[in-house]
Each structure stands twice: as C-alpha cells, then as structure tokens.
C-alpha cells in the first residue's frame, strides 16, 4: 500500500465529523492508534509540527507529510 492510500484510509477513519480536516480530538485518537503508549506524550508536539498553517487542524496534505516523516 502506498503512503497516499494509507493516508486516505486513515483520514476517512479519523475525520469522524467528516468536515475535511482532523481536529485536535480526532488527532489524539489517530496518534494513540499509531504510537500507542508514546502517543499522548508526543501528541501536542507532533500536532504543532504538522499543522503547518496553524489552523488548529490537520489537512489531508499535512497528514501525508506527517506519515512520510514518521515513516522515515
């Protein structure tokens, strides 16, 4: 599976209110799922790093960038 396909699936699952972005509470769930016990401690730092436009949400493009960065 390619990163974009994985991001599309993750985005579909974690954008619970289907507003086209992942808000903070949805992001916490996403990070918890991906990083397990490390997730909560790292969540705020990661959120700020990848919320490039500082709109307090993660767009699909920002999610793709995050997945690529975390995978490397």
From TrEMBL:
<feature type="domain" description="EF-hand">
    <location>
        <begin position="2"/>
        <end position="37"/>
    </location>
</feature>
<dbReference type="Pfam" id="PF13499">
    <property type="entry name" value="EF-hand_7"/>
</dbReference>
<dbReference type="InterPro" id="IPR018247">
    <property type="entry name" value="EF_Hand_1_Ca_BS"/>
</dbReference>
<protein>
    <submittedName>
        <fullName>EF-hand domain-containing protein</fullName>
    </submittedName>
</protein>
<feature type="domain" description="EF-hand">
    <location>
        <begin position="38"/>
        <end position="72"/>
    </location>
</feature>
<dbReference type="InterPro" id="IPR002048">
    <property type="entry name" value="EF_hand_dom"/>
</dbReference>
<dbReference type="InterPro" id="IPR011992">
    <property type="entry name" value="EF-hand-dom_pair"/>
</dbReference>
